[in-house]
């Protein structure tokens, strides 16, 4: 057996794989930071071989509760990602799988590659309703892409949707794909109305460097981008620096920041509740958005999420809180599971790219319901 990860998004350290039935691996830390949880590797020469793959350092990863009731994803064609039996004993994560083909890829969640990102940008810009802007360069020299959907005009609502500040949360870009596809469908009545009355500024991948490097949480300088919003710099966090600068030009009436949560097996929203300047009007809007989203998608729920933050106690370095305060607008973090949804589980795929896409589409129904009251 060979195990390799020298490709876009790859992450694994090989310790001892002499016995495929008792192989030992470790997850590599994000560069210049101690975060780790994302893994993605290929096992070769394994057809019909009963594999037992131990990830020995799982117990000291960034979010150990993330491994409880978690199942890894596997793929033979890198298109369809299915779940495989996975155990966690409090220390090691163990994947047990007998592949049907010579090579198989394993990952924490269905990867979203840089090539696919570029295909997404290319496909969107072909639409007459979409323009592409290059916001700037990342630390590793990658492009930071912005898609503008709809024609800017006075009186139109300004909606920002950003995804994947944390690069290992690939579900965020899968969700973005569904949202963009629907917005650009000129036979979708909700999309047509939204673009008639609003302009969308969408950043499908806030952290292309961390994504390519196979990081969980940080960019090329070791910065956690979702703690950089108060004082981003071109050197340390150019991704946030460029996006914030563009937001200052457009103004913001609505901001959705899309993430994944390692531990909680639910889709949920974290709002700006701890922001000192937040108004009842904005909190009521959030409430209604969540109710509309739940009605549009049974994969979303209201019961489980993060604990409410006391007034004035919010961490103001995050996108959601910073934007809510700076623009006095509805600003939310949407979290999706790495595992599955407890209320609507899917045995074969768990939470999956297709389900992410559909939740992305459903978000537009919720937004449609409150659009006129955003300002
Ligand atoms: Zn996140």
TrEMBL record:
Name of one Pfam family that matches: Peptidase_M14
Cofactors that this protein relies on: Zn(2+)
Residues the record marks as active site: 335 (proton donor/acceptor)
UniProt similarity note: Belongs to the peptidase M14 family.
Protein name as annotated: M14-type cytosolic carboxypeptidase
Keywords: Carboxypeptidase, Hydrolase, Protease
Residue intervals of the Peptidase M14 domain: 110-374
Keyword Protease: yes
Alphabetical list of PROSITE patterns matching this protein: PEPTIDASE_M14
Domain of life: Bacteria
Keyword Protease: yes
GO MF: carboxypeptidase activity
